[in-house]
Automatic annotation (TrEMBL):
<protein>
    <recommendedName>
        <fullName>Tetratricopeptide repeat protein</fullName>
    </recommendedName>
</protein>
<keyword id="KW-0802">TPR repeat</keyword>
<dbReference type="InterPro" id="IPR011990">
    <property type="entry name" value="TPR-like_helical_dom_sf"/>
</dbReference>
<dbReference type="InterPro" id="IPR019734">
    <property type="entry name" value="TPR_rpt"/>
</dbReference>
<feature type="repeat" description="TPR">
    <location>
        <begin position="214"/>
        <end position="247"/>
    </location>
</feature>
């Protein structure tokens, strides 16, 4: 499953990847995907558990064979991907630290594996330290430069990211093409990003590499959704689950189409509830809360939001859900100050336009319009093309009586309603 983790930031996207439009033609058909819901068997999970048992016994019998630890760690990482259980991610970290310490951080593949684990945990600065350590070792330099691109993008160090991207340039390389797609998406050139992602998919199909096909199909599902190509998005997600029926990310993508495009809240909830039985993560409660809000069901909306926070309390997710926490707290004047505190931590951890957007939005919601505008103009405007960030920017402009800056963003957002979600339709129209 190693390749599935090549760009965690593309896959770890959790909630608002897709969006909304007026109710129009039917895209989905429950017969297409119902067979993938509520499956009892997950061959990937069973295989990973058997592998853990096998390698653990071997390690117990020969504790000097440190290489076994990496085998065990890789399978715990697979369990995390399929179950969402954070304990498996931390177990992976524990084993990789043990392995790295035994090797005195001299084995480059093990150092890189720990860096990828830290990326999944949103511990990006620590991941960068390890990536640079791997680069200094020198072995497998191109693999390390792929990792460096991934980390630098997360940290907002874009000139450094591009340097690493240029070094690994190879138009016949799947790994290069998906990063080139990521770079173009970051620049706001979605059409070019899709072109490169499709080239990567073609390579995966030509090589008949199941892991790469799953990865490229699911990410194309995202990209097509961004571009308003909803039928293509749906078809791409279906291709993903046909290869891996337990791939919850693609099923969630279908749930978003059902909710945002077709406004079928009952069916969207059915899909989400089925996924959550095997892959239980806090973001599912937030999605259900959004759906309840659209239905006008206040008690369900609050119930699911409370369930989200309850799950956050029961598990230590570190910084992984900081963005969502900040956005939720910012919505309520009574907790907006908390949003500022979280946003400041995010800015310190990763000074990207996304992090500064959280900070500007939080300041707007405590009534400090001028501070919000100052941050937005300096760190957000022209630096991110994500619709929700653009909506925040428009609201900040509006609150500072800048209608000439607000209107072009409103016009743009009206074409991004699918991605934003049904609850934003009224908000955008009121800009």
């Amino acid at each position: 499953m190693k390749t599935l983790k090549i760009i965690p930031f593309l896959v770890f996207t959790i909630l608002l990847i897709f969006g909304c439009e007026t109710k129009s033609e039917q895209i989905t058909n429950a017969d297409d995907y119902t067979k993938y819901l509520g499956l009892k068997d997950n061959k990937s999970v069973t295989f990973a558990q058997n592998e853990i048992d096998f390698w653990q016994k071997k390690f117990d019998a020969a504790p000097n064979q440190i290489s076994y630890l990496s085998q065990i760690a890789a399978n715990y990482s697979t369990l995390f991907e399929y179950t969402g259980d954070i304990k498996n991610l931390y177990k992976t970290e524990e084993l990789l630290i043990q392995s790295n310490e035994a090797y005195d951080y001299s084995r480059v593949s093990t150092v890189r594996s720990l860096a990828r684990n830290y990326i999944s945990q949103h511990r990006f600065k620590e991941a960068l330290v390890l990536a640079n350590k791997a680069l200094a070792i020198g072995e497998g330099k191109k693999e390390t430069q792929k990792l460096l691109f991934d980390v630098q993008m997360e940290l907002g160090n874009y000139p450094e990211a591009v340097k690493n991207l240029n070094v690994i340039r190879d138009m016949n390389s799947f790994d290069y093409l998906i990063r080139l797609a990521k770079w173009n998406d970051h620049k706001g050139d979605l059409e070019t990003a899709i072109t490169f992602m499709e080239k990567a998919r073609d390579i995966a199909e030509k090589e008949d590499n199941k892991v790469l096909k799953i990865w490229s199909y699911s990410n194309l599902g995202d990209f097509y959704g961004h571009a308003g190509r909803i039928q293509d998005s749906y078809d791409s997600f279906l291709k993903t689950v046909a290869l891996d029926p337990n791939y919850s990310y693609a099923l969630k993508g279908i749930a978003w189409i059902v909710f945002s495009k077709e406004r079928n809240t009952e069916e969207a909830n059915r899909i989400i509830d089925a996924i959550a039985t095997t892959h239980n993560t806090p973001d599912f409660y937030l999605l259900k809360s959004q759906i309840a809000q659209f239905d006008g069901n206040k008690s369900e909306e609050i119930k699911n939001r409370n369930a989200y926070f309850s799950m956050m309390e029961k598990n230590n997710y570190g910084a992984m859900y900081n963005k969502y926490n900040a956005l939720i707290y910012a919505e309520d004047k009574n907790t907006a100050q908390k949003a500022i505190e979280i946003a400041k931590i995010e800015v310190a951890h990763r000074p990207t336009a996304d992090s500064y957007d959280l900070l500007a939005w939080a300041y707007l919601n405590v009534g400090d319009n001028k501070k919000a505008l100052e941050i937005a103009q300096l760190h957000v405007a022209g630096k991110s093309f994500e619709p929700k960030i653009q909506y925040h920017l428009a609201m900040i402009y509006k609150s500072n009586n800048l209608p000439l800056k607000t209107k072009p963003i409103k016009d743009e957002l009206l074409s991004s309603l699918y991605e934003l979600g049904p609850n934003f339709e009224k908000k955008v129209n009121q800009l």
